[in-house]
Amino acid sequence: MKLYNYWRSTSSWRVRIALALKGLAYDYVAVHLVRDGGEQHKDTYRGKNPMEQVPTLELDDGTLLRQSLAIIGYLDEKHPSPPLLPDDLKLRAFTREAAEIMNSGMQPLHNLAVLERLRAATMDEKAWTRHFVGRGLMALEAIAQEHAGRYLVADAVSLADICLIPQIYAARRFDVDLTGCPLLVQIADRVAAEPAFSSTHPDRQPDANKT
Length: 211
Ligand SMILES: N[C@@H](CCC(=O)N[C@@H](CS)C(=O)NCC(=O)O)C(=O)O
Prior knowledge:
With about 210 residues, the chain is an alpha+beta fold. It folds into 2 domains: about 80 residues, Glutaredoxin, CATH 3.40.30.10; about 110 residues, Glutathione S-transferase Yfyf (Class Pi), Chain A, domain 2. The chain has 9 helices and 4 strands, in the order βαβαββααααααα. Strands 2-1-3-4 form a 4-stranded mixed sheet, with helices on one face. Helix 1 packs antiparallel against helix 7, helix 4 packs parallel to helix 7 and helix 7 packs across helix 8. It is globular and about 45 Å long. The two termini are about 25 Å apart. The mean pLDDT is about 95. It binds glutathione.
């Protein structure tokens, strides 16, 4: 398999974590989102991902999978161990709720293309990001207060943690105030030290900090 991704992309990191949890090997193909106007916009990559975003997972038979949660869902169904969703149906719903808050309620609002548009409109992109990421973090803290065990939802690693660790990384990158979500941060920092999360950290990727 080949994973087209970018070291600092939170959606890419989610897929790297899932691959690591499943013990699956892959070739790392770096797509530089900034250099030369962004390699995601070049014809060669747009053919693989018409949204001009990372990640894209190319299977050995050439099939292209896009959208991090769809890719992770495929990996989880194809390689069920360890499961990335709880067996209990209510815990499953809480896990998906947390993932969806991050996938549709937070990450898209600080995506590069959105920030570039805000910059062009001379809007305060930092205030924007802090507002929307802060709002999402408060909702996640409420989920943690209600449902956390060792992990964000109950006592097994899940899709919620796969989204959470990159999301907290992004929040810190954008200087978002984390004082209102102490349990979330406590869980995230503990889980981030686990091998599947730490080995896939942006700073440990081959394209890290390359301009
Ligand atoms: N919902 C998509 C989001 C993908 C996404 O926003 N990727 C960002 C990096 S995290 C990207 O490629 N941005 C490029 C751009 O905005 O030009 C997913 O989960 O895969």
